[in-house]
Here is the input.
Amino acid sequence: MHELGVTQEVLDIALNKAREAQASRITKINLVIGEMSGIVDDSVQFYFDFLSQDSIARDARLSFRRVPMQVRCRRCGFSFSPEKLDWSCPKCKEWDAEVTAGKEFYIDSIEVD
Amino acid sequence: MKVKVLQNILDANTQMAQKNQRLLDNHRILALNIMASPGAGKTSLILKTIARLKDKTRIAVIEGDIASTIDADRISDQGVAVVQINTGGGCHLDANMVENALNNLKLNEIDLLFIENVGNLVCPAAFRLGEHKRVVLLSVPEGDDKPIKYPMMFTESEAVVINKTDLMPLLDFDLDAFKRKVIGLNPDVEIFQLSAKTGQGLDPWLSWLEAELKSLRA
Here is the structure.
């Protein structure tokens, strides 16, 4: 729902980094987004095309690397990807799960000319 | 050419939240971010807490809503300082909005600050505001499956309040199953069961607030 604000942040960070690198054009932005974040890729690209049109990031492609949710059982240490509504450990059957992946929400890198 | 960035997309918000927290710390104000679905009873819980604590604790409220001043008016009727934020369609509060609200409060006259977030179990979990504790409210008519459907809200909170327990006899809400799911996601979380309407079960919640306030001021 808040993709517009998020996209503005992505653009601001990318423009800042490009300026530091004295780049003349941003061609690609590589994002890493965990499954738990609830961000819709298509919306972000849609807003990005609109927000970036008067900047050096115009026509840049956003690449989304999606990180699936991964949890670790606190009882037996087994790591697994929970399925649907069941977060109980497939190995020891206990429900005591620590999220170890899936909350990522960062810009990994930008590609510039 | 590839340039490494490795920067969280919400960095600007996080930095502003840290600034807010420093401001609150300087004034020794305990700030709670109250999050829940629309209608879970956020305002009712705040009102009940005000009624019970206002004689000994100076309370203020920041009210976040998409539109209207309905909630702020209810708080203001209790003689408590309140600032209304209307997000104009925005699905959550962010640290910048809270900074503006803090500028409109007399911080030297506050012990306990409630920040009532926009009714939503998704987006508020991603935006720190500068609060000391995040509290998620879940009313029993919403169902006991919510921790699994909205895990971020429950993994990111320090306390879970189960509200409207007076309705339990009418519903098939499985309290044990709910608690098991919450603790399974977040073993250190505080869990309270209460009815903001009848006041039943309110004491442990009030004691927790007072203990947190005391430890902040120790």
